[in-house]
Design a protein that fits this description.
Length: about 350
């Protein structure tokens, strides 16, 4: 009879590892926990000098070590409870060695297999934000995008959660636009990534006005949330900005300046579906801003038309031939997106609210 200790079980031609005996596990574990303690001791000075980055890199190494031991020696999840007790006893002045957090370290290493990427990207954001990424996003490409955006925009974990709930990744770059033919390649790529579709104005609450002028006022009353939804780089210039041309008065709904694009952004807000004539009006406003407000160092003014609904094909035909860069997107007031699922069905839609107001 062969020594089963070294063979493992046979199952359909595959050698299955045999769970180690308690004595074997104790011997291996003692050496393993010794190495972990040594690694923590080495990193303590670095943690003090560069707390977040060093700590997250340390967490990744611990998580990676656990994964390797579990794969090679067949350790179960109970080892994490034992680790937690031993590490808390050894380092009583250090937080973060609860069993729950060590499980996150394992998940962290499992989710990010490239240590260089960990150092360069996710180690630059707080651990709490990393946990939010692990809990909320399963797709790796999507998780990478949110991690980089969190760094770029300085999002807290709470802001990150709001952006994930609002499906920012799916909405970014979604406007129907003519940027490719109206802007240089580098600017058109940046503009495409800056603008989104739809824009979510759920911070306006349930008392949603039906006239553009009222919506503008409420957006400015919630300017911080509005700027957050627009994205990084937008600086507010004014609302109902007065322009006098040819003896006539014109008023731009909302005027912004984008610090990265280095240009004015004219936003026209409509409380109805898209109509081709809206583009002509927006184009005229852009021409006026380029002539009266634009500095010689500024780039061409971009127009953003926000409507309640649109037909993509009609928008594309309507934009054809215009030299000014214009994007068209929808705006929505999704008041229920942050509520528990069981409550969402009991809330009226915006259309139902508007019908009730008309009655």
């Amino acid at each position: 009879m062969e020594d089963r200790k070294h063979m493992g079980k046979q199952k359909e031609g595959v050698v299955m590892p045999v769970a180690p005996s308690m004595q074997e596990m104790d011997t291996s574990y003692i050496e393993f926990i010794k190495n972990i303690k040594q690694e923590i001791s080495k990193q303590r000075v670095s943690i003090t000098l560069a707390a977040n980055s060093s700590m997250i890199c340390l967490y990744w190494k611990i998580g990676k070590a656990i994964l390797e031991k579990q794969e090679v020696e067949g350790w179960g999840t109970k080892v994490i409870d034992r680790m937690s007790k031993d590490l808390c006893d050894e380092f009583p002045d250090m937080k973060g060695f609860s069993a729950r957090n060590i499980k996150y370290m394992r998940k962290f290493a499992l989710s990010w297999d490239d240590y260089e990427f960990v150092q360069q990207v996710v180690a630059q954001i707080p651990w709490r934000t990393n946990i939010k990424l692990l809990d909320k996003i399963s797709d790796k490409e999507c998780r990478i995008w949110y991690a980089k955006q969190a760094i770029c925009n300085g999002w807290s974990s709470n802001i990150l959660e709001v952006q994930i709930q609002g499906k920012l990744f799916e909405r970014t770059g979604g406007t129907v636009n003519n940027f490719e033919v109206s802007l240089p390649k580098s600017d058109s790529d940046m503009a495409r990534d800056i603008f989104k579709d739809p824009y979510l104005f759920d911070f306006l609450g349930t008392d949603m006005p039906r006239r553009e002028i009222e919506i503008e006022r409420k957006l400015i009353e919630h300017i911080q949330q509005f700027l957050l939804e627009l994205g990084q780089g937008f600086a507010y210039v004014g609302r109902q900005v007065h322009l006098e041309v040819g003896g006539q008065d014109f008023y731009i709904d909302l005027l912004f300046y984008h610090l990265k694009l280095r240009c004015y952004v004219v936003i026209e807000l409509k409380a109805c579906d898209f109509e081709p004539g809206f583009v002509a009006q927006l184009n005229m406003y852009q021409n006026i801003v380029n002539d009266l407000l634009r500095h010689p160092d500024d780039k061409p003014t971009i127009g953003l038309l926000l409507v309640k609904g649109k037909n993509k094909t009609i928008v594309e035909y309507s934009l054809a031939g215009y030299q000014n860069p214009i994007g068209v997107a929808e705006w929505k007031n999704q008041i229920a997106r942050s509520l528990p699922e069981e409550l969402k069905s009991s809330l009226p839609t915006i259309e139902e609210i508007e019908r009730a107001l008309d009655e």
